[in-house]
Description:
Elements: E1 3-7, H1 21-44, E2 49-52, H2 64-73, E3 81-83, H3 96-103, E4 110-112, E5 117-121, E6 126-131, E7 156-162, E8 164-165, E9 178-179, H4 183-186, E10 191-195, E11 201-204, E12 207-209, E13 225-230, E14 239-244, E15 249-257, H5 260-272, E16 277-287, H6 289-305, E17 308-318, H7 322-328, H8 332-344, H9 350-372
Parallel strand pairs: 1-2, 2-3, 3-4, 6-7, 7-10, 8-9, 10-12, 15-16, 16-17
Antiparallel strand pairs: 1-13, 5-6, 11-12, 13-14
Helix pairs in contact: 5-6, 8-9
Protein name: Exonuclease
GO molecular function: exonuclease activity
Keywords: Exonuclease, Hydrolase, Nuclease
Amino acid sequence: MPKFLHTADWQMGRAFTRFETEDGAALVEARFEAIETLARLANEHHCDAVLVAGDVFDAQTVSDRTIRRVFNATKGFAGPWVMLPGNHDAALAESVWTRAQRLGAVPENVHLALQPGVIDLEPERLSILCAPLTQRHTYGDLTELFSGYETPERFIRIGLAHGSVQGLLPDEIDSTNPIAPNRAEASRLDYLALGDWHGTKQIDERTWYSGTPEPERFRNNEAGNALIVEVSGPGATPSVTRLPTGRYQWHQWRETLAVHSDLEQLLERLNSLPESAVVDLRLDGSVTLAGEETLLKALSVAEARFRSLRCERSGLQLAPTDEDIAALKADGYVGEVVESLREQQEGAQDEVARDALAILAGLLREREQEAAQ
Length: 373
């Protein structure tokens, strides 16, 4: 029974400049580790081939070192790899692919599908019908050519393409590089391996997006997988198994705090995340001074535990209670300043007032702690 691994959208060479240097470097390294994981899984599941449905590289201008490291990472699986250019690494006359060939970086078992056509893997009895992008954006269905491709008898017909299945993906996905939703049926494909949508998604029983093997953005779309596909024979319905491959989990939360229980629930959710979490948190609403102190301590602990944690708190107002003010011993003029800053948070200087109130509260707490020593 022919079996292969379907993957796509590696985006090698992507930079994570919005993160701290250490975190960005770790996220980059995880993408190379993902290729090694794919090779290991292909061996463990006795796959006949690995098919990469486009966007191996994030740009044409990636470094020579990145090119060499990508192909070095494939060496764990000695069987055939078929790599298809996508919109980020289109097969231009001069491209990242031609540079890889000049460097001598492409192993003999890696087939580069730089031209439309069929790659027959004879020992594996797989015919790979390839629709590479030769420019970043196209407006016709390149997979239409599949219908005219002849393949050897008893070979499994596998389509390999990169683009947008029309009418079946969320509205916000790029409408260029269209693919007909019935392509597998129309072109007598046993399976259509797609890339471009970064999450794992089934279109029909023969058509799948594998998604990227390592998440790289805050989007809940089932990223971080590879697909093991088995087809018992021509015309048979494929069996598709989803395997997790991602190292880091990306979480983006938008929370509004109103009462203390909201803060407690937020901190419980944070504590439940694994150390591999990449978290982007934005807080709105209000919190007491005691709650702010609890929050800051929890965020400090989480920053050290997670791969990355960024928290935007400019929309979170400080709402000191009578107990907060009493604990700070903010009476007299200082108490009046605290009250004034609390009111100013509602006006045009809301962020400045909030920061000033937080600083003042911190100074008052430090004074009390020193007095107690």
